[in-house]
Amino acid sequence: MQKDQNTGWQFTRNQVIATIVIVTLAMQTTIVGGYALKWSWTGFAKQTLWDWLDLLIVPIVLALGGYLFNISENRRTMRIAANTEEARRKRDREAQAAQRERELEAQAAQRERELEVENQRAETDRQIAAQSRQDGMLQAYIDQIGQLLLDKDRPLLNATTAREIEQLLLNKDRPLPKATTAIEVRPETDGDEVRTLARARTLTVLPSLDGERKGSVLQFLYESHLVIKGHVVVMLKGADLRGAELSAANLSEAHLSSADLRNAVLEAADLRGAELRDADLSNAKLTAANLDSANLGGSDLRRAYLHAANLLRANLSGVDLSEAYLHAADLHKVDLSEADLSEAVLSEANLRDAVLTHADLRKTDLRDADLRDANLSGADLREANPGRAYLSAVNLRRANLSGADLRDADLRDADLREADLKDADLRGADLREVDLSRADLSRADLTNATMPNGQKYEVWLETTEGQQWFETYNGSRGEDGENSGLS
Description:
Blueprint: H1 2-36, H2 49-150, E1 160-161, H3 162-170, E2 185-186, H4 192-205, H5 211-223, E3 227-228, E4 231-232, H6 457-460, H7 464-476, H8 481-484
Parallel strand pairs: 1-2
Antiparallel strand pairs: 3-4
């Protein structure tokens, strides 16, 4: 392309030079002929120098200007061509660079995919190896405990203490693990070294196992009658059962006191009568679990999921159930005295006849819960939400209900003597036959509530008793304990 442009410029210059030469020769010939040969037709014989200058200046300027213009145009054309070529080369370089970058990115992506596949394969291999290792450890553990169980010379289960015989004979639901005779009765300390060995092996193997295999260990111990309440051979205090998979497991009467069961999966598990005192069940999944008559005193159930769980007659005194989910749980006649239920969800739960004395129920969701005949004396219900809850005949003496949402609550026959109801929302509540003597109702909202004598709050205020109470109540704002309540 550059060569073609240079050729076109050279041809134009030759033409200009030839034209100038021809014109110059023609003028010289004409001038010489006009002066020297007196060619009259030229008219030069009579011309002066100024005439010649006047005649030649315009053609010379035009010729020189045309030449210079031609040179300028050629140079501009060359610059444009050079710029165009440079731009094309730049585009080519950029395209090639982009192509190389795409190829490098594709190669990097391919290497990343290959590395990911290799990592996945390595992770799979590690998991398989870990599972194989855990299977080996589990099998070795079962073999070791099995040998102790079958060894006639070792008293792991071959003999029973007199105290255990008495306890087992009284247990109608679970017979002795084998026939026991008077000859087999051993002293209290006999076989302790074997029990210690079995416990040590159990505590050693559990941390190395995953949740499923931990569940298998516990099931094995239970089915081997080694962790039965009243006949505990292997103590599981402090045992690492975190994340144990025990869904639908049968662990009734199991002894799991002080065991670490955090994040354990015990959904629909049978834990009737189980000993779980001081166990750590935080974040455990206990949906629909059967904990009838289980002993959970002092256990940690923070954030545990107990939806529709059966806790009938269970001991939950002093238990930590803060932020636990107990929707529709059966807590009939349960002992929850001094339990921490702050921010727990107890909506639609059955708490009839439950003992909740001095329990912490701050910000607890009690919507639609059945609290009839429950004892909540001294309980802290600040900012609780017992909306539409059944609270008839409930004992709330000295309970702290300040700021509680008691809209439309059924409080018939409830004992609210000396209760703190400051800022409580009692709109539409049924307070018939309620004892409110010495209760603090400062700033409580009683709009449309049914008062102890059966009248609506607005109608009751028109009575002499209502006016006297309202005047005293507004004047004292609940500060005078003898006058702020309803007699």
